[in-house]
Structures are given as structure tokens and as C-alpha cells.
Amino acid sequence: MERRLLFVLGFTAAVLVGFLLFAALPTMTGRDAELRMVPVDPTDLFAGEYMTIAYEISTLSASLPNDGPLRAGETVYVALSEGGVAEPVGYGYRKPAGFFIKGTVEEADRDGRSRVTYGIERFYVPERSGRDVRIDRSWTARVKIDAHGNARVVALLKDGTEVTFSYSPAAERR
């Protein structure tokens, strides 16, 4: 009986550690990229303290080099430029050589424009610290992208300077 209990506890601990390592892998081994953000409603007070983020690379145009039309629900690999703010330089269903990010096609329209999500559309902030933030074109996100294209946001920047979020009681009284 004791051996069985120890096995179950050990297996459960191993699974939990595995999930944590998988989630942290892009941050530990990934390459840095800076992505330009676009304005979006910055907070969702009902779902918790996070900012909803959209990126310029979230909309892909058929004018970029590609493998063919995209279909909703499919995994897509977007090749990125290196140095400075990363820009999409092509996309397709196969992993490209070089620097890329993996996403999921949410919508594909007849005009050749597709909306893609990358799993980095939320940035969690301390309680009550993101309510007055208004994102414009001066904002970018520093992300880590691993060798498989998985990404994690590690910082938000405004005019190239990392933004720190903190709760301000003065903002509460407005």
C-alpha cells in the first residue's frame, strides 16, 4: 500500500514539474524578439488583471511570401525579420528555416488577409495597475521565442523603455 501511494505521489509530482518546465521552456531557451503592438481595449475587469494585447503581426496579408491560402483553425509558422522590431517576412504551414513564431489562424477572408493568434495576447499585471494604460504605436512587447516557435511575453516597452506596473491609489479616486 505504501509503495503504491509513493508511486502515485511521485508520478503526480513529475507530471506537475513537466507542465511547469514545458510552460517555462520558451522563457529559458528562447531568442528575444520585439513585436509592435496595436491599440486594443487594455483591460478586462471581469476576467482578472491582465491587458489584452494585439500585434501588427496578428494580421497577415497574402502579399507576403506564403505557401498558399490560410484556413481558420490551422497552425501557421510566420518567418520574422531579425534586429529591431520583428516584422513578418513570410508564412506557411511548414516550419521555415531561421527565426519564426508559431500561431493559429483565427480568421481568413477572401481578400487574402488573415488574423492569427500566438498565445501571447494577454499580459498579466498587478491588481489595479493596468486600468489607465492606453496602448499606441509607441508600445512594443519583448517576447522570447523558442526553437519550435512558442512564445512568451517577458516585458512591455514604451518608446524602447521597459514599463513597470504598480498600483496607484490616486488612480482609484478618479
Task: Give an overview of the whole structure.
The chain is α+β, with helices and mostly antiparallel strands and 174 residues long. It has helices at residues 2-29, 169-172, and strands at 31-38, 50-52, 54-55, 59-61, 75-80, 88-92, 100-108, 113-117, 122-124, 139-145, 151-158, 161-162. β5 (75-80) and β6 form a beta hairpin. The longest helix has 28 residues, at 2-29. The radius of gyration is 19 Å and the shape is globular.
Which key features would you list for this structure?
174 residues, globular, 5-stranded antiparallel β-sheet, alpha+beta
Break the fold down into its secondary structure elements and pairings.
Blueprint: H1 2-29, E1 31-38, E2 50-52, E3 54-55, E4 59-61, E5 75-80, E6 88-92, E7 100-108, E8 113-117, E9 122-124, E10 139-145, E11 151-158, E12 161-162, H2 169-172
Total of helices: 2
Instruction: Work out the radius of gyration.
Output: 19 Å
Number of strands: 12
Structural class by SSE content: alpha+beta
Percentage of residues in strands: 35-45%
Shape: globular
Low-confidence segments, ≥5 residues, pLDDT <50?
none
Order of helices and strands: HEEEEEEEEEEEEH
Across the major sheet, the strand order is 3-1-10-11-12
* Range of helix content: 10-25%
Largest sheet: 5 strands, antiparallel
- Distance between the amino and carboxyl termini: 61 Å
Number of structural units classed as domains: 1
Average pLDDT over all residues: 81
